[in-house]
Design brief:
The chain is an all-alpha fold. 73% of the residues lie in helices and 0% in strands. The protein starts with a helix and ends in a 16-residue tail after the last helix. This is DUF1311 domain-containing protein.
Length: 131
């Protein structure tokens, strides 16, 4: 019985150490979004460098990225159409988490221009057309 009580106290103490305030969670989610955005921008720049000789691709790729930013912002407005204060103190965390998800999706979508397509894929379009 004594060991059970000690174990419960240890677990309770561990959980208390993991507790965060809403402000902490908002900051953490914001930081995760910044990291995801930085990763997207790094890959975007690598693609621009790799395909620099393909001017048509670069023009179209830049336009696609510009439009994606507009889509991302529109999706955010659709997800949270009301004023920020109407969603409570969790809103900064929720917003950042949603932006992180959208940004990670975009990162994976454009990564194909760096990593290529699976072997045997015949519809390659501009992937690999660096000239």
């Amino acid at each position: 019985m004594k060991s059970l009580l000690i174990t419960l106290l240890f677990v309770a103490g561990s959980l208390t150490g993991m507790a965060q305030t809403q402000s902490d969670m908002n900051k953490q989610a914001g930081q995760e979004y910044k990291e995801a955005d930085k990763k997207l921008n790094t890959i975007y720049q690598e693609i621009l460098k790799k395909y620099a000789a393909n001017k048509t691709f670069i023009t179209n790729f830049r336009e696609a990225q510009r439009l994606w930013v507009q889509l991302r912002d529109a999706q955010l407005k659709a997800m949270y159409p009301g004023p920020a204060k109407s969603y409570g103190s969790m809103f900064p965390m929720c917003k950042a988490t949603y932006l992180t998800e959208l940004t990670n999706q975009r990162t994976e979508a454009i990564r194909v221009w760096l990593n290529g397509l699976p072997p045997g894929e015949t519809c390659t379009g501009s992937v690999g057309a660096t000239e």
